[in-house]
Specification:
Order of helices and strands: HHEHHEHEHEEEEHHEHHEEEEE
CATH topology: Purple Acid Phosphatase, chain A, domain 2
Structural class: alpha/beta
Radius of gyration: 20 Å
Number of domains: 1
CATH class: Alpha Beta
Length: about 375
């Protein structure tokens, strides 16, 4: 549903002038949307993907995914939970000068073009392969993390408050930040929107232990990296707070959160080094907010590539429940979406029915990556 331009301008004016900060702006947005939506209890269906397109073959055949999603008339939006190329590929930004010799300028532009082929609004949150990991040897030391993130923002988030694909309005933290924390204005990628009785929010929470694995070699900059992590994580907390405040104020019946990182990555759980420790404050914050909300909450993530679903905090003594030292939170469900290089190639069809006590239902929809094969 599109908000009239005049109402959007009024919203932005309120955001700029309001002394009470972000939540006042989101309340204006929510009130406006509520008055326009006469069927607020209707089910909402969205498509969710991640770790796509991971290589040139997938990029060249991207229409097979977009065609599959576009054909589903019930899907209202597409959420991409990060990683638009493999962790063994060079980084790709074309607007960084002087270019690094081993970078691959032009790839991001091609992905952007493919996002625009969806006839649904596309909400994308960056993954670690796009920026935090560009300094790694396996990505050919092809990019400076902060420059790569800035380039992503200038390309994929050039219109704050508007989605990719079919343009639709969302709240961006770049426009609706608490004036007491002006550095939050840089996080244009953090967005929020409401569909009926469901509040959606995305956060920039990348892999590589929330970007705390040291940047390598010539990119090493501990001070800048520490500042990046602190500012982003604090902004994530405030944005997540605002989403749950909106959900409570608007009597939302469900909240859906999209991030890239798998904060319970099975490979990291069994590793000898602790590569999940810097997600603990995020999970603890999430646990407190979900418990306080009381209703069903769904967390969507990519990163570990293999589809799965669980209730990671339902049992404090379980392998997932004990990692981050939180209370038991049985009303949090999590889905890890299938990565595009994991067979079969699938996108997640998620439906939220606010009328049901358990509102979340989903199925994986297979699509063909080989154009010579007919999907069944």
């Amino acid at each position: 549903m599109k908000m009239p331009l005049l109402r959007l301008k009024n919203l932005l004016s309120v955001s700029a002038l309001c002394a009470t900060g972000l939540i006042s702006a989101t309340s204006v947005y929510a009130n406006d949307m509520r008055h326009e939506d006469e069927n607020s209890d209707r089910p909402v269906t969205v498509a969710v993907i991640g770790d796509w397109p991971y290589n040139k073959l997938l990029l060249d055949n991207a229409h097979l995914l977009s065609d599959s999603v576009n054909e589903d008339v019930n899907v209202s939006r597409l959420i991409h939970v990060g990683d638009i190329h493999a962790g063994s590929m060079p980084c790709t930004s074309a607007d960084i000068l002087p270019p690094i010799s081993l970078s691959n300028p032009g790839y991001n532009q091609k992905v952007y073009f493919q996002f625009q082929q969806f006839n649904k609004p596309v909400i994308y949150t960056p993954g670690d392969n796009e920026w935090t990991d560009c300094q790694k040897s396996k990505q050919f030391k092809s990019g400076d993390p902060l420059k790569e993130l800035a380039s992503l923002r200038s390309q994929f988030f050039a219109k704050p408050g508007l989605t990719l694909g079919k343009e639709a309005q969302v709240l961006s933290q770049a426009q609706h930040f608490d004036p007491a924390y002006p550095t939050d204005a840089q996080f244009v990628e953090n967005v929020m929107w409401q569909q009926g009785k469901v509040v959606f929010v995305t956060l920039n929470v990348p892999g590589s232990n929330n970007d705390t694995l040291p940047w390598a070699d010539t990119f090493s900059n501990p001070l800048a990296q520490t500042q990046e992590v602190a500012e982003r994580t604090s902004a994530d907390f405030r944005w997540l707070d605002a989403a749950f405040q909106m959900a409570k104020k608007e009597h939302a019946r469900a909240v859906v959160i999209g991030i890239q990182a798998d904060m319970w990555d099975p490979a990291a759980i069994t590793a000898t080094t602790n590569e999940l420790s810097n997600y603990t404050p995020i999970v603890q914050k999430l646990a407190d907010l979900v418990e306080d909300f009381g209703g069903p909450v769904l967390l969507l993530n990519g990163d570990s590539h293999v589809y799965g679903s669980d209730q990671p905090l339902a049992d404090q003594s379980s392998s997932t429940g004990s990692i981050h030292h939180t209370q038991s939170v049985p009303n949090l469900t999590r889905i890890t979406v299938q990565g595009s290089t994991t067979a079969p190639s699938e996108w997640l069809r998620l439906t939220i029915n606010p009328r049901n006590n358990q509102p979340f239902s989903w199925e994986n929809v297979a699509y063909c990556t080989d154009p010579s094969v007919t999907c069944q």
